[in-house]
Design a protein that fits this description.
Radius of gyration of chain A: 18 Å
Number of helices of chain A: 6
Helix content of chain A: 10-25%
Oligomer: homotetramer
Largest sheet of chain A: 6 strands, antiparallel
Chain lengths: ~260, ~260, ~260, ~260
């Protein structure tokens, strides 16, 4: 599937100049090829590019004075077959590579340690792909998609109780539950058509049968229509923008179409 | 039902003398008559007696030097008929007296505000007694009674996620869910036979059809076998002992029999 | 001091009719006399009036369909002498009446249990009035008054870390610290001139030398210019409006003048 | 400095066999050479070795049935000069490599986002090494080293309020404060002589002037007497043992001497 992506960001910097970390470029990967791409950032200072987490994608360090303005245009060819999770075999944790260990552990917004009791009790006989499919179904069914009930400090535990949220909250909860069930899980910032209202999207990636499997618990986007931007433990790592200072929203648009 | 109660407490006070608030006497109330009672506290300082929350029961203020030692013996006649909660009608919150308002609101260990989404989504068509019965069944079924997984700082939200705990945790979770469902709910410290291991017991009281209804979500004790000690918003109010200083456990026994 | 108070509330009720608890009337008390008062609530349903916490002030239960609109006009004569807290003697907790015990304990937004270490370590040699004065000075100096950094779910512990907030946050933090220092403390909703931007105000009341002492850690209003509306453990009890349903802000003005 | 290390672990596995991740070997690094080493694990199943976080040290995956028993003996040559942090220049975050970004962000036990207000307000004019030195002094002075007041779920925010804890808590708080002050910071599991009572040690590492600098805010061990075992975002990553199942403590000794 071919996606066309157009992002425009416009923020005012309040007070002294701020360093800003921007992660908005689709990542070049085996299953998503960047056909064309242009990132324009209005800045007088040089822009530094660094690798994203797990070596996926890239981030820009920007010195922003007064304004942060960026424009991103890309066409991405996603070549990813849909995968049925349920039949995938379980991998015992002791067979996992060192680089995956961090994705078994709790993080700032995914307190998997606190959800182990729930997963063991409600899904205890399942493991591997069968568990992943059951947890995804459960999150999709247990939550209501509702804007403005959660915020940037909402955790997986909060969402587990409030039973509502946006894509970030769905991803956090699924990731936390999967880790509680001994499945390595990471959060993914992404572009996908059909996200409503149009915005940056957040989904989960579960490590099953030797590979990362994209899962959107909001059911807004099938795995084959998702272009990854960045990955990480949770929203702290995959934020599209992290400001070391104070920025005020002016306007922002994210458009993702199928071409 | 006639209950015989025997409590022995023995704590060492570490450091300077400490003020201690003790709430271990069964409360004299219409549905539980104190047939006989003796509370002995070893102390050189005078002991002050004050009322408990909502005017129920009494508390002792003790000045403890080096040791806190107390012995309580009582026989209590409980005359309380079992009540079937399910058919009790709902009371709209706007018909509640001012003294009940606090029991609709979140407290330190019962974050009912965070559980409103869950209650609305899973039990939204129920109210009043039908909701109370459904929530009690849900807590009884969803949790595993397990000592040593929770502590004095465990909240209802923690228990909602861990799906296990002791009587304190069951009471906190039921109280939080009931409040989230617009039913006034308070926590109750109590004596009951059959508590295993024998200890102080904690249960909930839900305000339905104009009266407080005792509910033990652990299913260890029927309402007609429970002798209240104190009531309050949550464990902060009903603790059998609150030490303003440092106390170390030496030994403690609680025996409750049916006579 | 004579205060003129004018409040206008206008909220839209989203979805089904909602029960609303309104606490906006100045309380008639020995040190604040209501010279004149008019509360108008637009509603087709009867309005029920109930007592506030500790028997102070009153609350209205309203059945709101589509709109909640209320207007309050009052003139209040405050006759309260300023009190210098510092010389007031300490009361050992064991001398406190039963009705004060709840104000020694942690509550939803005032986790005094978690702040005991800080108070003991930094203010350990102080007690009573000297401690109250030192804690008030500390809060006033340690925080920056800043709107929009906190919200309705911000706790005293959050504010202790973020070092900023509005009147609600100052009151929560002072109350939590006082309780941690064995001084009974409650939160107070109030009217006061000079609050900027004009709004409902929140302050603390500390029990010292046998009486409640009003303290505004924001330093916006002296005790003699404050008219209490309600009291309670924290913001849960003293909210000017608690909606059992969904309400949307339309507009609201609070004007308090000195006459 | 030459350290001799002897560790004996003995745990009982309760219930079904458990996968266990063990991180107890001193890491071979430029500034700490492993002179001799023997790790013995009693197990019938093969043991898998994987890399630690940031490629530092190694972890063992063990399949434990009934017992987990391990013995570790090593001699480590630490060749690390003491560094005076204060004069080290600040690095603007925009100059940091991608691999360091995660260490600027909040994690499960180090909620640096919530402590930004404190750091800005109290240390706002400082940056880089001067800030690092000031924060270390502050943590060392503000906390009391006290066993048994914290637990495995204690966070940096809890410690910031309680003002007491053990090495894990000191490390968490310093790491959280440093990140709040825009200094990359990670937690380090380590061996050091002089830890009292003898145990695994936890310290912080701050990225200053292009290198990681070991800092022990408990002041128990100078940087030149510390042998790193593992690094990571916080205690979740650097735990000496993570059990995917249930283990019960039988006995454990850690002895670290200077030879």
């Amino acid at each position: 599937m071919r996606l066309s992506i157009a992002v425009d960001l416009n923020y005012a910097i309040v007070g002294p100049p701020a360093d800003v970390l921007l992660q908005i470029e689709a990542a070049a990967m085996a299953d998503q090829r960047i056909a064309s791409e242009a990132l324009t950032i209005w800045s007088d200072s040089p822009i530094a590019t660094v690798r994203g987490e797990d070596g996926i994608g890239q981030r820009c360090w920007i010195r922003a004075e007064q304004w942060l303005q960026a424009e991103y245009r890309a066409t991405v060819e996603v070549a990813r077959d849909p995968v049925d999770l349920a039949p995938l075999p379980a991998t015992p944790v002791r067979a996992l590579d060192g680089a995956l260990v961090q994705y078994l552990l709790p993080s700032r917004y995914c307190q998997s340690d606190q959800l182990e009791g729930f997963v063991r009790r409600e899904f205890g006989r399942l493991e591997g792909g069968a568990l992943a499919a059951a947890l995804t179904d459960w999150v999709a069914g247990a939550l209501d998609y509702r804007p403005n009930v959660s915020s940037g400090v909402t955790t997986a535990l909060d969402t587990f109780a409030s039973r509502s949220g946006v894509c970030r909250d769905y991803a956090h909860l699924l990731v936390a539950l999967a880790r509680a069930g001994e499945i390595p899980a990471r959060c993914v910032s992404a572009y996908a058509p059909g996200v409503d209202p149009p915005d940056f999207h957040a989904v989960a990636e579960l490590w099953l049968d030797g590979a990362w499997r994209l899962v959107d618990a909001t059911r807004m986007a099938p795995a084959e229509a998702i272009a990854r931007v960045s990955v990480g433990r949770d929203a702290t790592d995959i934020a599209f923008m992290t400001v070391f200072g104070v920025a005020q929203f002016v306007n922002q648009t994210v458009r993702v179409g199928q071409v």
